[in-house]
Design brief:
single chain, 122 residues, mainly alpha, two-stranded antiparallel ribbon
Length: 122
């Protein structure tokens, strides 16, 4: 897994967790992703350096405006790609797993074409 993919996975996880709870802490990210707390601490630190998240004095992880925009984009890719794969007959679990891999590498052009196609037939 490259650094960009890893960063995107952390952003998406933080975004998803923040939709379910007022606060997101490193332990929450660790449990959700199945990573050790030291790995999460390093990953969050790298996101902080890039200005994508901040951590407040209570340890809550907050997406910056830039981080939130990027996280929403990644999450949209995940949900649209999952839906597209399910629509062509892939079971839900496999579709979600495959979408998670593809979302990090698919071009904007291809993704937008898939998105347009899905919306056209909903």
């Amino acid at each position: 897994m490259d650094n960009r993919e890893s960063a995107e996975m952390y952003l998406e996880t933080i975004y998803v967790l923040s939709q379910k709870s007022q606060s997101v802490r490193k332990i929450d990210v660790s449990k959700h992703m199945g990573f050790t707390k030291p790995s999460v601490t390093r990953g969050i630190g790298l996101l902080e350096e890039k200005g994508l998240v901040s951590v407040d004095e209570s340890g809550n992880i907050l997406l910056t405006d830039t981080g939130k925009k990027e996280a929403k984009k990644i999450y949209e890719r995940h949900t649209i790609l999952t839906k597209a794969l399910i629509n062509i007959g892939v079971d839900e679990k496999t579709a979600a797993e495959d979408a998670c891999r593809v979302e990090h590498y698919i071009s904007d052009e291809t993704f937008n074409a898939i998105k347009k196609h899905i919306k056209q037939y909903e």
